[in-house]
Amino acid sequence: MSFYDVGETGRTLTYLAAGSMRRGDLIADGTNTNDPVYVPESALDPSEIVFDPRGDAVERQQVSFEALIQRTSCLRRHRGRILERNSCREPWSNTTMASVSQKIPLGDRSLSAQLDVFNVLNLLNSGWGLRREAAPLLLEHVGQTTGSVETSQSIFRFDPNAPRWTLLPGESAFQLQLAVRYRF
Predict the structure, then answer these.
(1) Which among 164, 139, 160, 143 is positioned nearest to 152, based on CA atoms?
(2) How does residue 93 score in pLDDT terms, banded at 50, 70 and 90?
(3) Which pTM value belongs to this model?
(4) pLDDT tens digits, residue range 42-71?
(5) Average predicted confidence (pLDDT) for the chain
(6) What is residue 132's predicted lDDT score, i.e. its pLDDT?
(7) Strands 109-118, 93-106: parallel, antiparallel or unpaired by DSSP?
(8) CA 179/CA 182 separation, integer angstroms
(9) What number is the average pLDDT over the span 3-29?
(10) How far is it, in rounded angstroms, from Cα 172 to Cα 94?
(11) How many structural domains is the chain composed of?
């Protein structure tokens, strides 16, 4: 009988702002899908970040974004500046495996069987052993405020209901493997 538990630090990630319809290339690198977010000193201050009045109310977007910053240490550390690439991490994860093998002698021959269980935690409780991956897109660039290039600000949409994590079903479910060997 054997049991393995492998713990891993989470992968690094960068929370992003992206745009559509040729909007949102905030760092002018030719793509609008990979720009790190600016983390405001206060998401409640419209001089630091402007939220889209369409969709969710501005106040709800402000309060929800501020709450996300408060509970996410890497965002808290970058208040008042652009988030450094790969400065955030997914949570710690564990992979558990167990194996049971038995050899049965049959005279000068033998039969052996082995049962392997991958993700033992999920076998014990369906809410355990779940593997999640970050969904790093936080803000959608939807426009600009009026004014000159020097005074205009980006307008963002923050969806408080968007999932921050994606469940990886193949890595979250337990799996069983049975092997039988007959030696003659």
Answers:
(1) 143
(2) confident
(3) 0.76
(4) 999 999 999 998 867 999 999 999 999 999
(5) 90
(6) 87
(7) antiparallel
(8) 10
(9) 81
(10) 11
(11) 1
pLDDT of residue 152: 86
The residue assigned the tokens 């049991």 is 3
Q: Which residues pair with 16 in a beta bridge?
A: 36, 137
The three-point CA angle 99-100-103 to 5° equals 135
Yes or no: say if 1 and 100 are a contact pair by the CB < 8 Å rule. Answer: yes
> What is residue 64's predicted lDDT score, i.e. its pLDDT?
95
Nearest CA to 174 out of 121, 115, 136 is that of 121
Please answer whether residues 17 and 51 qualify as being in contact, where contact means their C-beta atoms are separated by less than 8 angstroms: no
Domain that residue 123 falls in = 2-183
Mark 110-134 as b/e (b = at least 16 C-beta within 10 Å): eeeeeeebbbbbbbeeeeebbbbeb
What's the sign of the alpha-carbon dihedral 147, 148, 153, 154? positive
Query: Is 10 within 8 Å of 90 (Cβ atoms)?
Result: yes
Q: In the predicted model, is pLDDT for residue 24 greater than 70?
A: no
